[in-house]
Amino acid sequence: MALAPPPLAPLSLLLRLLGPAVLALAAAWAFDRLCQRKGLLPPGFYRPWRRAAAGALVFLILWFGIFAPIGEVGLDEKLDLSAISTPRLFLLHGMMAAAVLGWFLLGFAGARRPRPAAPAAAAPLEAPADSVPAPAPTAAMTAAVRQPSFFRQVAAQLGLVAPDVPREVLIGLALGACAWGAVLLALFAAAIAIYAIGGEQALPKPSAIVPWIAALPVLVRLLVSLSAGFVEEIFFRGFLQPRAGIALSTGCFVLAHLSYGQPFMLLGIAMLSLIYAFLVRWRQTIWPAIAAHALFDGVQLLVIIPMAMRYLGPAPGHGGGKPAMAVFSGVAGALGRIW
């Protein structure tokens, strides 16, 4: 006899659909308020339609790219890996880049901050008879007061302008290697603790996505690493962090990885986000974070996952009953999804 669905099923479905949208709307509103409070609203936002359109872009990317996975928590749905094409791997990054570019276009392109109008009763002052006329503006003077180009303004706003970019990249690579080691040790410690409390079954296991990633061409995995390092750091650390703060940007970064369905790996993601956030605050540019992020993802996709497949086999397993292999399997299952 078939059982009727629970009476709260329609309400649950409604909450799963509308919940992420409401959270995204609240976050977009908070983002706009924080920008205003910090004096970081672009000059174009003095036109209400521009500000509203930019807010809509922030809402949409937060809804689909950040908060949508919350509505899937608890659902036992298997991802159809055969339906994922190579361009789809870059879809979210493309949405993030489009949202950031659209926000700056609305805020800065062709926009001028309105000047306060002079009082109607004020008459123009007449120059004294013995005054010296002001010199005509020269080309050098005009160039000195000329506004920077739109793309120069965007680069400066996102933290992409630095006195020595190669130096910042090298700093990011060095600290990124240290961050990778710190996250690896933290995950091993957490895996050992989980194994000691709940046994092997409590540890995360490599899923079908791990061998699928390992089978991708090397060039695709490399491009995914570079895309994640560049676009995600621009969005979370260059765009969100200066305007919304480290706490909100880190929370969004963690939620963006919630769709992988593995809470254990969120520990490593939160650690990485905080490391990148304070690295940006220290260096006052996002280039070190870009380099560190790309390095971490490159190590995961090009080294960790192939190594996990070599030792664990093509099928997800439980580590063969050995504690050391079980712990390694759990860490590999978590690291294999941080990219």
Kindly describe this structure:
It is globular and about 60 Å long. It has 12 helices and no strands. Helix content is 65%, strand content 0%. It has 339 residues and is mainly α. It folds into 2 domains: 11-113, no CATH class; 163-339, no CATH class. The chain has helices at 9-37, 48-67, 91-108, 139-145, 150-157, 165-198, 209-214, 218-244, 246-256, 263-283, 287-312, 323-335. The model is unreliable at 116-134 and 315-320 (pLDDT under 50).
Structural class: mainly alpha
What is the H-and-E element order?
Answer: HHHHHHHHHHHH
Shape: globular
Tally the beta strands: 0
As for the number of domains, it is 2
The main sheet comes to: none
Note the beta-strand portion.
under 5%
Q: State the oligomer.
A: single chain
- Our measurement of the CA-to-CA distance between the termini, rounded to an integer number of angstroms, reads 45 Å
Helix content: 55-70%
What is this entry, summarized?
65% of the residues lie in helices and 0% in strands. It is mainly alpha-helical and 339 residues long. The protein folds into two domains: 11-113, no CATH class; 163-339, no CATH class.
List keywords for this structure.
339 residues, mainly alpha, 2 domains
